[in-house]
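Good day; I would like, with your permission, to put a structural problem before you. A protein sequence and the structure tokens that stand for its backbone fold form the material at issue. I would ask you to consider whether the tokens describe a fold that such a sequence might reasonably adopt. I set the record out below, with my sincere thanks for your time.
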Amino acid sequence: MNTELLLKNLRSIPDFPIPGILFRDVTSLFKSAECMKELDDTLYEMYKECGITKVVGIESRGFVMGATLAVRLGAGFVPVRKPGKLPAETISESYSKEYGTDTIEIHKDAIDENDVVLLHDDLLATGGTMLAAYNLVKKMNPKRVMINFIIELDDLKGREIFPADAQIDSLLHLEGE
């Protein structure tokens, strides 16, 4: 992986969305074809032998690489969204995040016991959003669940809230500052 390329193109925005947060903006990676290819190739190489049948992307930045990875892996794509955005019957999970409380939903029939699932999002900070998604997916009893992030803010220790046996992979490790 060309870490230098990705870091050079990653934008950091101080005091967004609230004062004291240094927001790592992956959309600056998505606007570069070279960065998108680097992310796509790296993610594919990481997971091509894992038998993934569904990639679950977390609204909304998790949709970008999650969907492209699903296509490359020959897997289905499942969106996890905010309440009221999915048209069929859903299950939901509420959670706390670093600057508030939120709820996410997934279609009730999106995953079954035969699926091998990769959960994908852009960034691991405190982990609340992904833990809620992980809990939703686990309720559906898939064969296996893996978790991936483009960026992990190591100093915020988000991975510590997951069960010890959760497989979590991150491409870039940064400080949250």
